[in-house]
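Lab manual, section 2.4: Encoding a predicted structure.

Procedure: take the sequence of the chain (243 residues), apply the prediction step described in section 2.3, and record the output as structure tokens. A sample record is shown.
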Amino acid sequence: MKNKLHFFPIFAAIAIFSLTACKKKNYITGGTIEDVNKYKDMTTYQVLSSVPSFDTLIQLINAGNLTNEINEQNGTFFAPTNTSIHSYLEVRTAYDQAVYSADAQFGLDSLLYYISNNINGTADSLKMYMIHQSLPYSVLTSIGVQYSTDLPGDSAIVSYEPVASNSTNAADYGSNPLVSSAPQLVYFTQLWASYPLGSANPASAVPANVGVHTLCTTSGVITSTGILNTLESTHTLFFYGTN
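Recorded output:
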């Protein structure tokens, strides 16, 4: 990692504790290589287990017996927070009430049952957040690169995009006139359809009917097994309702 990256926001691994539950775009600016490497002796699963904002996610991983997949060597995991899971339960309950019964409820116990029994491939769907490649900042591009996820037939784009200085929320992302380099942010774009990725069609321009462009509020956390990123809390588990 180059020294200039120390000025970019959300690179500090300790940001996991304060940012995963935030609903507004509030980022920690700064961080050191020591921060990013803080968890290098812990597996990705162990890191997630140590953070309260992922305790519901850990229940899902355990229910699906996916610990080994989460810890796949040189893999990259894009972790949804508890907030993302709770949003899914709310949306799924609303759907079930509209389709089946006004009294229907789809709670965490229902989701755990679905995952434990892999009903409708629910457990397998968690693999859409896993990429069997190590994706440090050095291999990412602003346009993005398309990767197959661990969910068969599924793919996503991972990009590392600079924040425009004239953006209305540039300051929120750590933009500072005293720093010559623009801050860069990692995005995970789930694809529902084919997309001709290229300079004229970057990840940031993916249409809503093709994919979902999602910010990582914490990125580049180095664990003993790979790389860990956190998806913003406005994300809904499985990108439910966007396909």
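Check your result against the sample. The first helix runs from residue 15 to 19.
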